[in-house]
Design goal:
Blueprint: H1 21-31, H2 33-55, H3 64-76, H4 81-93, H5 97-108, H6 116-128, H7 133-146, E1 154-158, H8 165-176, E2 181-191, E3 194-203, H9 211-218, E4 231-235, E5 241-245
Antiparallel strand pairs: 1-3, 2-3, 4-5
Helix pairs in contact: 3-4, 4-5, 6-7
Length: about 250
């Protein structure tokens, strides 16, 4: 009986070899890499929020995980504003203040609205670095307009802290009289071997923010105690303030 010839293989018939699982996965990633980046950033941000909600402690931006994620995003999607945000975080961790500002401003030029950390941290940076009041107000209002119900606070350092409970009471009175301030929490802290005071401000949406009003409120402690009921502080900038009689109610 004649022997049957073996069937020709798929390769001999001219069929295209099936790509490997690794090649298929790489193709899927390349086709949907933007979605993977978005979901990746969203997952990290969500985990950060969960961690903060449970512990109240800040996330360690200097961790290897954050550094690795920054490297991955920089390689996969270097033009994305979130990449500039993470690069800015890495710069500040490394003590590179100019790099931090450059990366954050590059991200902001893309009219970023989905990244609250970027908007909040940049506004805080401007306030702490002594930027002009218009620039600070613009940054704070940009953050608040996009996140009107955010629990994040604005921290303001006090040149002169309260010495008595009466000082604490007058500070709270002045701060809560500002239309856009919802609440204010005073904190006595220590940094670099020195003690100081600062206030953490929460907001009353959807009021427009003018940080000069908060500076004026905390400057009431510079007024002699006997004159605080009849005198009020107003500020034309974040550093130039004056005292005048209070307007009659």
């Amino acid at each position: 009986m004649a022997r049957r010839k073996p069937a020709r293989s798929a390769a001999r018939r001219g069929a295209t070899p099936r790509p490997s699982a690794l090649a298929r996965a790489r193709a899927v990633f390349q086709g949907y890499r933007i979605l993977f980046v978005i979901y990746g950033v969203g997952t990290v941000v969500g985990l950060r929020e969960l961690y903060l909600a449970r512990t109240g402690d800040p996330v360690d931006w200097a961790s290897e995980e954050w550094a690795e994620m920054t490297e991955v995003l920089a390689e996969v999607n270097p033009e994305d504003p979130d990449t500039d945000f993470l690069k800015g975080v890495q710069s500040i961790v490394q003590g590179d203040q100019p790099g931090f500002v450059t990366h954050f401003e590059d991200a902001l030029r893309a009219d970023v609205k989905h990244n609250e950390f970027l908007l909040h941290d940049y506004a805080r940076h401007l306030l702490e670095s002594g930027a002009g009041w218009r620039e600070v107000n613009e940054a704070v209002n940009r953050w608040r307009e996009n996140y009107p119900f955010s629990d994040e606070t604005l921290t303001l350092g006090l040149g002169t802290g309260p010495r008595t409970q009466a000082d604490v009471s007058v500070l709270r009175r002045e701060l809560l009289a500002v239309p856009w301030i919802g609440d204010a929490e005073l904190e006595n802290y220590e940094a670099g071997g020195r003690r100081g005071w600062r206030v953490h401000i929460t907001f009353r949406p959807p009021r427009e923010v003018d940080v000069r009003e908060a500076v004026a409120a905390v400057s009431i402690l510079l007024v002699p105690e006997a004159d605080r009921a009849r005198l009020a502080v107003t500020c034309s900038t974040l550093t130039d303030c004056s005292v005048a009689p209070r307007s009659p109610r």
